[in-house]
Write a structure and sequence with these properties.
This protein has about 230 residues and is an alpha/beta fold. The chain contains eight helices and eleven strands. It has helices at about 10-25, 35-45, 60-70, 90-95, 105-115, 160-170, 180-185, 195-210, and strands at about 5-10, 30, 50-55, 75-80, 100-105, 135, 140, 145-150, 155, 220, 225-230. It has a five-stranded parallel beta sheet. Strands 6-7-8-9 form a four-stranded antiparallel beta sheet, with helices on one face. A hairpin with a 2-residue loop joins strand 8 and strand 9. The longest helix has 14 residues, at about 195-210. It is globular. The model has no long low-confidence stretch (mean pLDDT about 85). The structure holds calcium ion. Calcium ion (CA) binds near residues 11 and 55.
Length: about 230
């Protein structure tokens, strides 16, 4: 089934380029040219991913993101920002955005980010268990399907969250630094701001921990990074 991308962007030229390229890449698109309309469409149309400009009429991208996240925790959001706003982007991630891109961006990279952030959902056909499974106590990592299971129930992750989990569980108990995670999982430069990793770990914890406020699996090693804990049973 085709995935749908909502584009919230008031610059008509950028909107047209995004619509054209996403359509060619096989996505359905919905468009909004101001923040209020964008929020309404995000909630009513349930897109698979949202591309969200920051500076918008009526309601800015940050406020939209915050209001949307109060009702929907899962739909990935990629924020589009002018270069001079980049320092604000970690703020955007803290409000619940999954990623950001700085204008001008290459269409090829944008399409790659869309693919990385979109929820995996129905991409993994169920059937006989694949052979490439890693047992991690209550968790199972199915590398063939890029899917993780908790207590045999599939956990709904974005591609990046899956990559983060895979990276942390590659060697359980070993501390992985934020810089290493940034390099392994993001594979591009965030201008050294590793807080993006902390934000992503928080969101992953919300999906996999019993109580995200008291994590038992993804543990913070102060000043060093994170590790995956398997010493529970
Ligand atoms: Ca704008």
């Amino acid at each position: 089934m085709k995935k749908t991308v909502l584009i919230v962007e008031d610059e008509k030229a950028i909107l047209d380029i995004l619509t054209l390229n996403l359509t060619i890449a096989g996505y359905d698109t919905i468009c909004a040219q101001d923040g209020k309309e964008g929020l309404a469409l995000a909630l009513s149309e349930k897109p698979d991913l949202i591309l969200l400009d920051v500076m918008l009429p009526y309601l800015d991208g940050f406020s939209l993101c915050k209001q949307f996240r109060a009702q929907d925790k899962l739909t990935p959001i990629i924020m589009l920002t002018a270069r001079e706003e980049e320092r604000d982007m970690v703020f955007g991630l803290e409000l619940g955005a999954d990623d950001y891109m700085t204008k001008p961006f290459s269409v090829r990279e944008l399409l790659a980010r869309v693919q990385t952030n979109i929820r995996r959902g129905d991409t993994a056909p169920e059937g006989a268990p694949s052979r490439n499974r890693v047992d991690l106590g209550r968790f199972t990592l199915d590398q063939e399907r890029s899917q993780i299971y908790k207590d045999d129930q599939p956990v709904d992750l974005t591609q990046r969250e899956y990559d983060l989990f895979r990276c942390l569980t590659a060697q359980p108990g070993r501390v992985v630094s934020r810089e290493a995670l940034m390099q392994e999982v993001w594979r591009y430069d965030y201008f050294g701001d590793v807080r993006a990793v902390d934000v992503a770990v928080c969101r992953l914890r919300e999906k996999i921990e019993d109580d995200a406020a008291h994590p038992e699996y993804i543990i913070t090693k102060r000043g060093a990074g994170y590790y995956f804990n398997t010493d529970l049973e």
